[in-house]
Amino acid sequence: MPSQPTIARIWRGRTRPDVADSYEAYLKTDGIPPLEKTALGVQLFREDRAHESWFTTISYWPDLDSMTAFTRGEPTKVHHLDRDPEFLIELPEFIQIHRIVIDRQGLR
């Protein structure tokens, strides 16, 4: 298995501002740990706007096969967390899969 990621899997969802802190906490306890155990890396981003808060999760994978194994054979299908309907304004219907072309870390 390559040690460098070649695939990024990107998920985005949005909440109302009044539940954004609770959803962030939920993602940290229920959404991110399975990715930390399986993916090469994971990032969680949050963007607060006036009427909504956006969350973006990017996980990094050595290849499409390993990502497909994690998603149980359906790499583009969203696998919602149990409480997503409670928090999200709408349930996202898809994720994005990007091939990593340049991966430079530690840029100054």
UniProtKB/TrEMBL annotation:
The source organism is Bradyrhizobium algeriense
- Protein name per the record: Antibiotic biosynthesis monooxygenase
InterPro entries reported in the protein's UniProt record: Dimeric_a/b-barrel (IPR011008)
